[in-house]
## 1
Amino acid sequence: MAREMLNVANLEAWYGESHILHGVDFSVQEGEVVTLLGRNGAGRTTTLRAIMGLVGARKGSVRIEGVESVGLAPHQVARMGVGYCPEERGIFAGLSTEENLLLPPRLKGAQGMQLAEIYDIFPNLLERAASPGTRLSGGEQQMLAVARILRTGARLLLLDEISEGLAPVIVQKLGDVIRTLRSKGITVVLVEQNFRFYVMERGKMVKQFAQSELASQMGLLQEFLGV
């Protein structure tokens, strides 16, 4: 039976005086991929940022492999094996692809992926190993942002809109990569459109369902997402 990798309970978060999350509850098992759905402004990105401690204030509980982290600074959360890929990617434009990959430190005691393994998963990056970050396409930058986290040895990945604005063929490749990561036991929480779904509305989780239930839940999605 898979162990619980992440448990979020009654999580609240603020940016200044703005109260964004109003008691978020969900859990993720080791090796599982789950997706947060919701309109823009529903609190999906804030949920990922709150797990990392990147909000103005938060309260509630965020347990990573059973250890409470809600009182920790972002760098301490990262050292627990959590990798965060923001929508803006954060590629170092003046460094080559390979230099970007070599830059992040390994987590203590973690077995981060070797370059050969990274290049096996992301062959595009091998082809562009010597290219500066400014020369990479949007899809290649997104691959690099995800690959850089895997070099650290993080086992829980928080990925925010990684397919935003990318061509369908690149989105399909990223989907293949996520399935590969899942097969390796890496846990993924996405703000995206795959796997198990949690629907957010006004800073709270209002519904969860499996991918197999997607067709039967279209009425609910139309109600909450306006699609």
## 2
Amino acid sequence: MGLLDGKAAIVTGGAQGIGRAMAETFAREGAAVVIADVNESAAVKTADEIVAGGSTVLAVPCDVTSEADVEAVVARCVADFGALDIMVNNAGVTRDATLRRMTLEDFRTVIDVHLQGAWLGTRAAAAVMREQHSGSIINMSSISGKVGNIGQTNYSTAKAGLVGLTKASAKELAHLGVRVNAIQPGLIRTAMTEAMRADVWEQKLSEIPMARAGDVADVANAALFLASDLSGYMTGTVLEVTGGRYM
């Protein structure tokens, strides 16, 4: 018996990194999973690898800034699996630069993918979940949305906005049985973070009371908790998965 037996989930940006870890975890716990990703070939590869373990996983191409794409992914999940129980708005990009050097295009791109994408995902998922009178929506924020990072006025703005989106939509949907929560990861060991200069990595590591970087599994397990009935009386919350950094 898995914590998500009989559930259907969508993970945007699920082809790699934290998104992939969540898709794998949900599938292992019994959910049928849709991996929605703008990189179709990577999504198919990831889905095939998880399916090889005996799970039910579907890859669907999706640009989360496209209203039509997001609504199509939700419709595909319902058509193939009969429901949508878990929606994870995880897709993201970075376009780091200082305020002086950042272009308007780079600012808008990050806002559009993270914030508009999550709003579209929340709205489309809620349309299905409100009819079911159940469902869990999980928005992937970041500790950068709490404290702000130099060189990330776009990313920090988007991730802070996701907290507002989470709380406002949680209030709108609570009486319909739909829960909306957010996760703020800290320093998580991924291909992107491991590309940091060694001195930058060590400086960030020194700020963590638990004295280690997180793994993608640490974030995936928090998402599993929010997706499952274990968190059935939680909505509008923000879980920090940071090892105590910036507590």
## 3
Amino acid sequence: MLIGAHVSPAGGPANAVQRGVERGCHSIQIFNQNPRAWKPRVYSDEEVADFHEAMKASEVDAVLIHAVYLLNCASEDEEIRDKSLTALTAALQAGDALGAVGVVLHPGSALKGTVEPAIERAAETIAEALKESENCALHLEDTAGAGGTLGRSFEELASLIEQAGGGKRLAVCLDSCHLYASGYDIATAEGLGAVIDEFDSIVGLDRLASLHFNDSATPLGSNVDRHAPPGEGHLGREGCAAFLSEPRFEGMPVILEGPGIDGKGIVPEDIALAHQMRDEGRAAR
């Protein structure tokens, strides 16, 4: 299990590697462009070379790119879908250049519309972005279920993958907070095991490629995406330890997004705590 954090790539992606090293990360996640702007960021050849050199000199083994939250591949607004396609394609191309494990994407939202047509629109946009990039995988992230967000159930994730073509580059990123908020009870090792069995039967474990580790500030089935510091939310110490020690997650990048123990970003103590909770979970199995 490659425990790491979402870090800033300010000043170039090589700096993100250094920020990961400073926190004791074995994986990192970055935005490839300003998360508040539509303009894609294209890395220069020098920036890409510096990134690879930094990775070689570090203990960071994996990088994920998180597509910015502005994207809505399911929008009924054609202009928004076009902008989403451009940004998603740029993220996948950045992933190709950096050798990323994958680009993590919130699949989109039907907003006040009907879910099935929204899934069709999102899948079409996703398929087009994959055609316009080469190798980088796309990890569809499960959602907490507020409003018309897509991916709030394993069935929706499976439908998105199927309608987007079902290719090998399509994968899933499971977020512990989102799972719990959308009604999947993973607060114990037994509950988590049953949920992952269900995921396997509906989506397939071969599609699971990355993880977000966040505690939930809201109760089971709340459909509210609000993170709590690890071990201090409704998952609690036991649920966090169970998530971090699930045997079927071995070898995957696990990203802490925050808040950390200081209520802000992830610091070295958060990474150390995650390792401690992983060991506790293993000992309890």
